[in-house]
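ugh ok so i messed up the first submission bc i forgot one of the chains. this is the corrected input, ALL of the components this time, i swear. 189 residues overall. if the numbers dont match what u have on ur side tell me asap before i send this to the collaborators (the ones from the other lab, u know who)
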Amino acid sequence: MDYDDLLGLIKQRRSIRRFKPDPIPDDIVNKILEVSRWAPSCGNSQPWEIVAVKRQSVRDEIVRILNDDYVAKGKEPPAGPAQAQLFIIVCANPENKPPARLGNQVNSMFYSTLGNAILYMAMAVTSLGLGAQWVSHIADPAVDGNIKELLGIPTTWEIFDMLAVGYPDVEPQPRSMRSFGEVVHYDLY
Ligand SMILES: Cc1cc2nc3c(=O)[nH]c(=O)nc-3n(C[C@H](O)[C@H](O)[C@H](O)COP(=O)(O)O)c2cc1C
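and heres the new structure output, hopefully the right one now
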């Protein structure tokens, strides 16, 4: 892959929030999951634990927990998660936080490490012709206890974020991105 291919894939990746009902073959699911463990991690700590939920009845229960909380907060539940065919929940065992010798910034390194695993999978999703929506609500303290109980995730672990994955049923609108000149500052701000 050269730079133009990489930039093309990066530009192609979009948040998809409407999915077709088509199931995702297991080999495709595994290809998405495989890239997560190659993500860079601070001190090579690899703190991620990934729960991939394929079974419809379990996904339905997750959606119910999330939607009940939306309704309790007077918000409209999003449609995407109920249509997606795969939930990828990225968790972390805080015991695998980077070692203190790496400095005071271990917390920020821990979370950017977890974000790397998510982004790698989001890129794999795009490369395979699928789409994904971040469902950050999964980490809300109002729901994460119920999600852990449902999935048997240890209470000491952190639920970091979730990707809801499926075949896109929508063409995303062009997005507005800040320009190179606005974002990049050579030498001094
Ligand atoms: C850390 C993170 C959390 C996000 N959480 C959500 C979310 O909970 N629900 C959602 O619909 N989109 C979520 N998004 C998607 C962003 O809204 C989206 O990336 C942004 O609007 C740019 O659109 P694009 O992904 O199509 O480029 C999240 C993105 C990131 C990086």
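quick check: Residues 14-15, 17, 133-137, 172, 175 surround flavin mononucleotide (CB under 6 Å). that seems consistent at least. The mean pLDDT is 96.
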